[in-house]
Amino acid sequence: MGAAHARTLATSVPGAEVVRVFDMDTERAKQVAHGVGAEAADSAEALVADVDAFVVASPDFTHADLAVAGIEAGKHVLCEKPLAVTADDARRVVDAEAAAGRRFVQVGFNRRFDPGFVDLKAAITDGSLGDVRLLHGIHRNASNSTSTDDATLVTGSMIHELDTFRWLLDGEIVAIRVESPVVDGFRDPQVATLWTDGGQMATAEVFVNAAYGYDVRVEVVGTGGSASLEPRHPVLRRVSGQGGSAIGSDFVEHFADSYRIELAAWADASLRGEVVGASAWDGYVANVVAAAGVDALRSGQKRDVVVPERPSLYA
Amino acid sequence: MGAAHARTLATSVPGAEVVRVFDMDTERAKQVAHGVGAEAADSAEALVADVDAFVVASPDFTHADLAVAGIEAGKHVLCEKPLAVTADDARRVVDAEAAAGRRFVQVGFNRRFDPGFVDLKAAITDGSLGDVRLLHGIHRNASNSTSTDDATLVTGSMIHELDTFRWLLDGEIVAIRVESPVVDGFRDPQVATLWTDGGQMATAEVFVNAAYGYDVRVEVVGTGGSASLEPRHPVLRRVSGQGGSAIGSDFVEHFADSYRIELAAWADASLRGEVVGASAWDGYVANVVAAAGVDALRSGQKRDVVVPERPSLYA
Amino acid sequence: MGAAHARTLATSVPGAEVVRVFDMDTERAKQVAHGVGAEAADSAEALVADVDAFVVASPDFTHADLAVAGIEAGKHVLCEKPLAVTADDARRVVDAEAAAGRRFVQVGFNRRFDPGFVDLKAAITDGSLGDVRLLHGIHRNASNSTSTDDATLVTGSMIHELDTFRWLLDGEIVAIRVESPVVDGFRDPQVATLWTDGGQMATAEVFVNAAYGYDVRVEVVGTGGSASLEPRHPVLRRVSGQGGSAIGSDFVEHFADSYRIELAAWADASLRGEVVGASAWDGYVANVVAAAGVDALRSGQKRDVVVPERPSLYA
Amino acid sequence: MGAAHARTLATSVPGAEVVRVFDMDTERAKQVAHGVGAEAADSAEALVADVDAFVVASPDFTHADLAVAGIEAGKHVLCEKPLAVTADDARRVVDAEAAAGRRFVQVGFNRRFDPGFVDLKAAITDGSLGDVRLLHGIHRNASNSTSTDDATLVTGSMIHELDTFRWLLDGEIVAIRVESPVVDGFRDPQVATLWTDGGQMATAEVFVNAAYGYDVRVEVVGTGGSASLEPRHPVLRRVSGQGGSAIGSDFVEHFADSYRIELAAWADASLRGEVVGASAWDGYVANVVAAAGVDALRSGQKRDVVVPERPSLYA
């Protein structure tokens, strides 16, 4: 992801210049840096010192510290989701911004920049769906590349739906349940049921071993109609008694537009000293909901989500 | 529904002749009878006596008694769903068949005869989806024409999904939860979560005030792939910046093929002294699951479904 | 086709009873007759004498004589397309009806009864497409089962588009050109360009070795919009990086609804002494246009179509 | 188009800096220049002198002269289609490159960079369609913004299909016919029939007053299958008895991806001293075919296309 972001910044985001790359694997850092005309940094600290703004795409457990380092250095940060591994860790980022009295961090919930998702939100806000009552989300990967345990399906994958639903509805998730047809071993797929403070419900399926490909869909159901995001490859092949389209397996490719637009929006906003997209607060809340989701998965119970009061910095 | 079935029998099912029509509303009975070249019967009892086989499409609370009357008279019966209002009532039909030592009753779960649903089942049984893990059902009506209280969404509408899921998976539903974003008043839409004895989960949305039209979809998700039933009108119109297809609001029209095929299969099987499609047992089990669903809706709890042992007559 | 029609009449068209079956192959006739509870007739003449109405699904060169025999015997006839092999032969049928002073013959242009085509016509007649300017037709078979020479693509396959376009537009084809990318040998696919008396143009592709399946599509383009008939199987399978639907290869299965509705409409109209659907005149005109099409194919030139004045019997 | 390209270069193409903008309308030039951090040039000649490479998006009649000016100055040029108004004019560009002994000009046939078109070409080159026999193109605009006479539908709009077909098939168009249902006045829509040196045929509809929106589709038909490019908006709305997607009316928005990728590829290749995409030769040949198309439209006759020998510079 880091290499992909570096390439996108270097090749598709004017105004951005990639000057430093850091990776614990020094050779890897040099290789990526070379490919984008940058230099490898000796340490994350050195990188933070040498740049105007930076992207965090390192292992999840390092996100919060690096975001805080950016805030303390007064540098704009685009931090890949999740903002932290735990809600407490994410809260440290929010607190650091509060202490700085200013926002620096954008969390990489890229769907907020995806043209399809933007249009889906427009279908809600233009009123043609009436009052929204239900959301249904599907999130499937061809194979599990990243989830080491089944709680990671919530904190690493479903966290996209958690943020997407909050953003689509302009609301908060107040309760969550996560269940699975598999009762022993690695629980996959998982089905979440969610409730919002706007009186809506939502379902979200996450399945990281769906075999056939990468597939993300959302349907919004209102009293006036329904809108579905159903990405489809524009080329239809009819061969051997089947008519159909390719389904890719690579989420970076699937969401390439959104990453490019996200990075450009981040670079542009950073130059103006602003933050767009998901804030540290949004990242923190997603972690709070995900933590309740993991608790729900482990206990088999519905869990209320207690979201603390929103600081005025994020009003 | 009764008038529609009479017309279909008269105009599209060779081998079937509609000879008697009964309705509490005598004028209505005469009118329908006249339209299909039949006579109005003086009473349901008289009708049962005068025909070789009959269709029950009267109010739900009369279904079980009429089915039992058919069994006792040794007449084949196609009984509209639900088989009864309560599981106990439905059990009386099963017991009557057990007492007769023979099956006479087909329950009108028409989707089992719908070409699309038949193909969806084939996608499961031909193995290309691998092991099925999840089902997702959508069942929307443009406006609520029949449900007087919100429990009826379960017993009258969702009962279709309950039977469909059992039939698709060749399995039993062992637990159910039914929830709704609406907490006071008429709970619509409702979202059910279901568990099967085959280790699968399912979600089912029922929404009887969906405004935009009648919409029934099912997705089956397995370890090897997914299959969705997504009926779409074959004519695509592109007008005024929109490209789309008509969505009807009439379920009889939507499922017209299935009703015709169902009635023909019933007439054909009846002539051979056999029963096809959903049996009285299937109707009874659907009532048992629906009753658990109503209990789940009212209590807000997950309810186990206790299905009694299947009598050998239905093996 | 004859066996399929006999089965459909026997199993799906109430009011119709199949009593006689004739085929030059006596064994075949007995077999089909047995399957539908009928008797094999000794000759076509005997069959005509013994029935109230009959379907002609014999080899094309016999159609006109059998239709005339029906007219002379005062029997209703559903004659499979084409009405005749040559326009002159088809004219004999028209003249026979003129002599009888009454219409008996319906030509089996089944698409006029296909629900999708009926809706496509509605999209024209309801005015939402504005003034129609263009039609585009696609007509593909998986493999060539019937065309012995390439002129047969026009007279046997494209003749469906010729009738469909006349019917959709309520107009006449006044010129035709038929060309092919293959210049030597069997010319397939073929592309026709057509002009109507309403100032419209049309293209029609016929391809009888399209390999992948049976595929019939039509797009109507007007000043106000476009409507396409694009039949699609309602079950979408997502497997192995592909999402798609089955495409059948059997036109009888593809158009099964239309055949059933056509036969029912024919039986019903025949009982009332009426003719619905495509008349002998429509069949004759299709032959006239097809003959011009064959001439166009052979000469490589655009050919005017000279349609004689419509007799008052067909006004 | 020029303003859009300037914006895309400035905001989405790293490595490119927009330094000069020229327009006959000085105020317009200043405005666009200001928006991208550039200066307005005093004349086209001054602009050519001051830049490393430039984009030509001025009126069509100026294209050839500006392209030649670029070649003579040794500057890379991205020239919007068409390369020239007449084939003779386009030939001057080819001759200038021949005289320079080097290629500098890319013609803006943007579809060659559109992801959908690239995949459509892949469906041909990967062999799954067998031998290609036919192409069908649709090219519709909501309203005619640019065509002052009906020949412009060929030289300005259909020229995209002419280049697309050559590129998809890696072949040459050897004959063309262009006809229209409208015989007097402004002939729109127009239907072209094309023949290639590879023994294929193609049809192309151009309709610049299609009212409903901008719509570009291509189907490739081979002996092994068919592939269609059918762009569809990923959000499906179901409202008021209709389920459908938005169709835009703006070709710049529709093909925004292709323009961005095209400009990036051009900037990248220019830095390396190379030319990618459609060459001046491709632009010239498109003009030659279009000229034959205009002649065909005016005469109502099929016209052979005589393409001169390809200079070795374009081998």
TrEMBL record, chains A, B, C, D:
Residues 118-227 form the GFO/IDH/MocA-like oxidoreductase domain. It comes from the Bacteria. It holds the Pfam family GFO_IDH_MocA_C3. Residues 1-109 form the Gfo/Idh/MocA-like oxidoreductase N-terminal domain. GO terms for molecular function: nucleotide binding. This is Inositol 2-dehydrogenase. It comes from Aeromicrobium erythreum.
